[in-house]
């Protein structure tokens, strides 16, 4: 996924699929949980918003030349987030509050995140390591690895939203 155009296409496709998954919920089911200790669709979206907000600033922030291959951790990130059999706990700083969310407001925020990244992406040197955020358990990531995280993390939660929609609308 190193080519800018390929990465941009994957980003756009990922967020298009996310939007399709979100549209499967109405205002009632959007905040409905299948079990007490699970997330509603609104909470999943809030989690994605928290994870994506500020990513543009990290990408544009302090960087350094990378000694390792720029895509060194991409396969690891992909394997973590696209392994749907594994369940993970969210880091507290991107844990969504258990409250009601407005679907269209959440969707607008996610579209803004995707648009902001899509505008920046063509002009980024993807090989640089970002120094303004240390990824939990992985350390500092290259721009390519951070964008891969955004894509694979969003794909993981799109899968989760589709599963939730299937359970709420059998």
UniProtKB/TrEMBL annotation:
InterPro entries: DinB-like, DinB/YfiT-like. Residues 1-28 form a coiled coil. Residues 12-161 form the DinB-like domain. Keywords: Coiled coil. Pfam families: DinB_2 (PF12867). Signal peptide: none annotated. It comes from the Bacteria. This is DinB family protein.
